[in-house]
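Each letter names a residue; the fold follows as tokens. Both lines appear below:
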Amino acid sequence: MNEISATVEDGYDGLRLDRYVSDVLGVCSRSQLKQREVEVTINGKPAKLARQVKSGDSLTVRYSSPEPSAVEAEPVALDILYEDDEVIVINKPAGMVVHPAQGNRHGTLMQGLLYYVAGLKSAYGEHTLADRPGIVHRLDKETSGVIITAKNPAAHEFLAKQFRLRRTVKVYLAVVKGGPRSSVGSVEATLARDPDNRKRFAVTSGKGKPSLTRYRVLARNKDYALLHLSPQTGRTHQLRVHMKHIGCPILGDPLYARQGGGYSNIGLMLHAYRLTIEVPDGTVHTFTAPLPERFTGFLSMAFPGVLAGGSLDAVEDQP
């Protein structure tokens, strides 16, 4: 059995213990807690994984090593924006799944990394992150854009901590139906899984996770708006749910927007445009993923002035 000790940092009061162990400490995914025989004591006393943690709690986590990964390398094409000895930054295309899962066992980003980075699987070995080597954060299958990956566990943890502590700056571009009334604003809400559709999330007045997105309208016409989105939290489907909540769902969203109309086959119009983060060598970078063809084609027709000069480099990182 492996064992780690940790003290709950400020800002995590009320988070379930199983989420803290998986999402914050990165021991394993929640679905693997039972398989990995995870046992936790809080302040020296055995604790149930459904318990909520408090800042200052002293945790001891015991767990078994992961089974060797059954995921094999595959020659998946990767659009690399940046690479050094520790990290690789990739422009993920829409339609690519980040990590193998039910229904998406092949052609994933992780399998492409295993093929491209010699020794990636052995670098992780029996580390707690061995079931997802290289994968620091994720984008939905339908979302394109910037994603940063790690070549070893130390780099992985260095990057992941910045996401946990919200030290990264993330900028997304989205085309939405209609548009928000205000040209600048924010959406703050509690999100939870939709009880009527387990694939979706919804704004709730009950239990859930706090979320915050800042937005700015870059262009609009009578039917659509181009938005600059800056998520301040990183909840599953956050941007998609927030836009639906304020009455302007993202164009092409198969879960949160009605299908049909002139652009029914355009795909999800959400693109992770920029990511600002410190890499392990101590330098801070802002990585930008060029707009995919589905964006440039739509914008050239709907908002031709936005692409004047061939880029959106004037877009600021904060609304």
User: Anything to note?
Assistant: The first strand starts at residue 2 and ends at 7.
